[in-house]
């Protein structure tokens, strides 16, 4: 029978801190190789079993759900995780977090996931923005391991997923500007490999085409959803002789960059330039002026993804799992939150 040890016990036997053991278990790269080897040797020799994973559900299944997350510093992560946690707290499962980042190469992300599976700690996985790990998660799912993706990106996948309706949200934002009278509406796009980014761009195009306006490639610039990535596109737009009267940024953080660049150019928002973002992360309501933006239902995304995974865990066979999953792609409604960063356009000739 496996000896039940805690992380504290492993740390003591290996002569390291508990945080070091945790980092080894999560395959973090900043652990000295010799230290990593020592910890892994202790784990192997002692037949390590985590306290929580030692408790099994009926049928011998682990009572842990793994959650693969990007940086918890992302402004949207707190609401997603709150939704997940509220559901898991009402279930017989516990939640175990693992971090995968876009800076990790595909092989490193795959190693993290493999580690979770080989340790038998998790009965299923919630993957938040998994990025290049999506194909591997798809392979796992199609072999019968329960997986749910939150706001997936990249190649289409058979894995059940929950996302916001990015296309409709971007359409509503662009249409709002058109109804105000704007015709030169610039767009700062997110990374083209993100399905969310592709959908938002399509929503922007839908609204322009509905209004009888051609898509002007000079009014479309590339960002990457990260802070400061909207600065260069904003500089290009605001340096034009016939500059746009409105800018729709693909997310709020890039919209903040537009505010900074507009201030540098001596432009006042919304008097000289209207601005719309996407996400409605907490700081957006407290900017000067408060930002008009598309609100994503982050809490509901986490909540419904967790509920979906729990329903998959109740399915006993992989064939039933695949049959059930065919209808499990959920797009949640977005809302346009109107604040003070938009107004009807003024003439810009002579600027």
Automatic annotation (TrEMBL):
Keywords: DNA-binding, Transcription, Transcription regulation. GO terms for molecular function: DNA-binding transcription factor activity; transcription cis-regulatory region binding. Residues 5-59 form the HTH lacI-type domain. It comes from Ktedonosporobacter rubrisoli. The keyword Transferase does not apply. This is LacI family transcriptional regulator. The lineage of its organism: Bacteria, Bacillati, Chloroflexota, Ktedonobacteria, Ktedonobacterales. Pfam families: LacI, Peripla_BP_3. SUPFAM superfamilies: lambda repressor-like DNA-binding domains (SSF47413), Periplasmic binding protein-like I (SSF53822).
């Amino acid at each position: 029978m496996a000896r039940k040890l805690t992380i504290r016990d492993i740390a003591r036997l290996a002569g390291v801190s508990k945080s070091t053991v945790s980092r080894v278990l999560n395959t973090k790269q900043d652990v000295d190789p010799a230290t990593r080897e020592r910890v892994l040797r202790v784990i192997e020799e002692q037949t390590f079993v985590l306290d929580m994973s030692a408790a099994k559900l009926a049928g011998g299944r682990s009572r842990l759900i793994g959650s693969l997350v990007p940086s918890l510093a992302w402004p949207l992560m707190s609401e997603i995780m709150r939704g997940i946690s509220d559901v898991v707290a009402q279930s017989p499962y516990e939640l175990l977090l693992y971090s995968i980042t876009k800076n990790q190469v595909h092989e490193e992300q795959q190693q993290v996931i493999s580690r979770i599976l080989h340790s038998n700690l998790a009965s299923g996985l919630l993957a938040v923005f998994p990025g290049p790990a999506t194909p591997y998660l798809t392979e796992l799912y199609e072999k019968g391991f329960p997986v749910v993706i939150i706001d997936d990106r990249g190649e289409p996948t058979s894995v059940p997923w929950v996302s916001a309706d990015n296309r409709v949200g971007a359409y509503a934002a662009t249409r709002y500007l058109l109804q105000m009278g704007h015709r030169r509406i610039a767009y700062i796009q997110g990374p083209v490999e993100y399905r969310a980014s592709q959908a938002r761009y399509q929503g922007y195009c839908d609204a322009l085409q509905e209004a009888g306006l051609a898509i002007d490639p000079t009014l479309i610039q590339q960002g990457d959803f990260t802070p400061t990535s909207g600065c260069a596109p904003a500089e290009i737009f605001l340096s034009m002789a016939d500059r746009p009267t409105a800018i729709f940024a693909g997310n709020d953080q890039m919209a903040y960059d537009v505010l900074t660049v507009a201030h540098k150019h001596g432009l006042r928002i919304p008097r000289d330039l209207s601005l719309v973002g996407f996400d409605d992360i907490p700081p957006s309501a407290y900017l000067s002026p408060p930002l008009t933006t598309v609100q994503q239902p982050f809490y509901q995304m986490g909540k419904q993804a967790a509920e979906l995974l729990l329903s998959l865990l109740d399915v006993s066979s992989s064939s039933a799992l695949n049959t059930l999953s065919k209808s499990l792609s959920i797009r949640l409604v977005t809302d346009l939150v109107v604040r003070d960063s938009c107004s009807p356009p003024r003439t810009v000739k002579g600027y």
